Amino acid sequence: MNRIVKIGKKKRLSRLDRIYVLRIIEGLWGTFVRLWRKPFTQKYPEVKRHPLGGYRGLHRLNKDWQGRVKCVACYMCATVCPAKCIRIVAGEAPWEDRDKYPVEFEIDELRCIFCGFCEMACPENAINLTPIYEYSQYNRKDFLLDKEKLMEINEWWSLPQYSKEYIKKKEIEEAKSKSH
Amino acid sequence: MSETLIFLLIVFIKMIIVAFGLMIIFAFTTVWERKLAGFIQDRLGPNRIGPYGMFQVVADGLKMFLKEEVFPNRAHRALYLVAPVIFLTPALMIFAVIPFGDTIRLFGRDISLVVVPDINIGILFIFAFASLGIYGVITAGWASNNKFSLHAGLRSAAQLISYEVVLLLSALPPLMAAGSLNLSKVVEYQSGLYLGFLPRWNLLIMLPGAIIFFVAMLAELNRLPFDMVECEQELVAGVHLEYSSMKFAAFYMGEYMNMLTACMLFTCLFLGGWLYPGYHSLRADDPNLAAAIGIIVFGIKLCIMISFIIQLRWTLPRFRYDQLMNLCWKRLLPITLVWIFLVALGILLFKPAVSVIAAGL
């Protein structure tokens, strides 16, 4: 391994480059072309972003076909949770098809690190991370989501501002208003 | 009313119109700079206030007003306060002699669209006042009791003085060709067409001189790529490091005013001012209409110049200080001297022929 590395030898600019002007014109052309490109900016508050699949946002508790909570209070999620943000109180299920159900199910969204382990650990596909990213509150208490709130999130997801169709419609409207 | 009084009144009215017009242009220039920066970087730029973010400047101004007035410890109070004024005033003074249109006829008298008409030392006046702005920079650096500010002030003073030489020398060829220091005469010299379609702007025959003038102009303005006054890596912020609130705004405004002046000067010297093809035939029919269109044409040329300077800012990396000085003294100055000689020779040999051809066309 006998390799010679030349250090400190600066490449001398060619005569053309040392005049600067031609290279500057080249650069100006570059920025001029950039001027006409479509901006990448997403106009967020007006147009909601649609996150890609696999985005880990707010939790939800899924319901079965009868509208009951799917969870069987097995404590898998609470055990695997690295932030220890899930609190479950199990109780005797009033239904025939299972023994236990969660009397209380509480997630502290401020402690949660959105790793998605609860979703992976769940044997019943009862807990999911939705792509909802707007859940800011004025109060720390409001971040403690109980069972009812977590089950409601199923309906939140169908809000029109999150659907792809809505975003497309908004974009078309905007293009129309711009052309006028 | 005596003639003198009427003359003074007209000058006063023109002064007010120009001052307010400049404030508005300055306001929109700052927004336009940010918008253009956004477009070049595939962003939108400010778009929250007003249509297309046009009134962003109102928010900026309000913010400046509401900022706290910080006064640095053990600074020289009087000089500290007066420095922004020294910087801003010459920038505003210069507009007195820049012609933005030809004469118009109103109420039975000819009114030339310069604040102070028929001033025979126009260019000298401009350079005299432009060089006064340097004192503002040095004073600000020295008075604010900060080593970084002082260093920035000295450095930019050296830069401005060096480039002033090149700027003045490269402004000479158009003046030599026109045979006058009066800017209106310089613009009028550029009227007419080459070969029936090319406007006789100085830019076309004096391109090298125009490029050198432009480079020196950028350096005088402290615009990128020569912004040695403002320099976060080496000098924290530059001479306005210790300035806050409206005192900082005065510096900011002075810079933009200088930019506007320089663009107008370049337009007058090299881009034919308010002239456009077909100007003289229109003027024979309706002088007022021709002059009005002339003002608009002047504005368009000014806009193009400003946009070009802003685009340059987002295109080029900044120069090192030694590179800056090398460029000035070792490259631009000799080239300019040779160029002046060549232009003088050209005028001596070809001017009669050119004027005959132009008269024939």
- Radius of gyration of chain A, in angstroms, nearest whole number: 27 Å
Briefly note the CATH topology name of the domain at 59-162 in chain A.
Alpha-Beta Plaits
Indicate the low-confidence ranges of chain A by residue numbers. none
Count of helical regions of chain B: 13
Percent strand of chain B equals: under 5%
Termini separation of chain A comes to 69 Å
Strand order, biggest sheet of chain B?
1-2
The strand count of chain B comes to 4
Considering DSSP H and I runs of 4 or more, what fraction of the residues of chain B is helical?
A: 55-70%
Structural class of chain B: mainly alpha
Overall, the morphology of chain B is globular
Total beta strand runs of chain A? 5
How many strands, which pairing sense, and closed or not: the largest β-sheet of chain B? Answer: 2 strands, antiparallel
| Sheet with the most strands: spatial strand order of chain A | 2-3-5
Mean pLDDT, all residues of chain A? 82
- Give me the secondary-structure category of chain A: alpha+beta
How would you describe what is shown here?
The complex is a heterodimer of chains A (180) and B (361). With 180 residues, chain A is α+β, with helices and mostly antiparallel strands. Chain A has helices at 15-18, 21-35, 76-80, 117-121, 147-156, 164-179; strands spanning 59-61, 86-92, 100-108, 127-129, 144-145. In chain A, the strands form two sheets. Chain A has a three-stranded antiparallel β-sheet with strand order 2-3-5. The longest helix of chain A is centred in the C-terminal third of the chain and has 16 residues, at 164-179. The mean pLDDT of chain A is 82. Chain B is mainly α and 361 residues long. Chain B is 69% helix and 3% strand. Chain B has helices spanning 3-40, 56-66, 77-93, 122-143, 147-178, 183-189, 202-205, 207-221, 232-235, 245-270, 279-285, 287-313, 321-360; strands at residues 104-106, 109-111, 193-194, 198-199. A two-stranded antiparallel ribbon of chain B has the order 1-2. A two-stranded antiparallel ribbon of chain B has the order 3-4. In chain B, strand 3 (193-194) and strand 4 form a beta hairpin. In chain B, helix 8 crosses helix 13. Chains A and B meet through helix 2 of A and helix 1 of B.
